[in-house]
Input
Amino acid sequence: MIIVQFIFGAIIGSFLSVCIYRIPISKGLHLDSEEDLAEPAKKAEPEEKISIAYPRRSFCPHCKAQLSWYHNIPILSWLVLRGKCAFCKAPISARYPVVELMTALVSVMTFQSFGMNPTGAVIFIFCAALIVISFIDYDYYIIPNVISLPGTVIALVLAGINQFYSIFKFPIVSGLKDAGLGILAGAGFLLFISEVYLRLRKKEGLGMGDVKLLAMTGALFGLEGSLYTIFIGSFLGSILGVLLVLCSGRKMSQQLPFGPYLALGTFAYIFAGSDFIFRLIQMATRQ
Ligand SMILES: [Zn+2]
Output
């Protein structure tokens, strides 16, 4: 069963890579080069109407050659081709197998922890959305509305269903009241911080994308989930953010993407739950 869940995750991961690559391009955002991911994004003309559905087949971004099915096998193809395009030998970013492997592991973790049931399915889809959001935010400093807004609406619908039929188990919200509180606490808190920062520093420190991401998280995981996400997300963001500045040469004054840390915070909530915070506090107070 674990092998099936791993393969399923790797295949979905391969689709997520497509989303990560194509969603920003279809919005007219553009990176200077595939390798130079630390550079902030520049606006450009939408590239040859690339969208999630078009072109149907995967292609090499360098020589535009269409890939065959055996170039598209998650993780394995990249290893067999040793990270180079089969046609032009241009390097293929290691991100592709990394995203596929991450998604495969998330798939195994999700279905092993929550079972192959509606709860597991919703959590897996949500985690997949978080993976896409994290990589796009890291590259372009945006969190696409095309994920967070429908995500929030769907989460509210699920909360509504749960209110009457209790189909989805913990950590998914039990009803609309908790979902509403989650949105208010999560998105509301970030909105407040962003407003305060704007007033004090006269520039934007926290994007509206983060606020909408927390609306989605709050709607699905309620008050506890959204507070947990903000707490762990800020904690990780301050530690890893400084490391990122030191290692990648991003400037401190430069905007840092907050989305990936919020995503990690939510992962921690989903898989470690409240126990994790208690253990952290215990560790901190023992010294
Ligand atoms: Zn190529």
Observations:
- Residues 208-248 form the longest helix (41 residues).
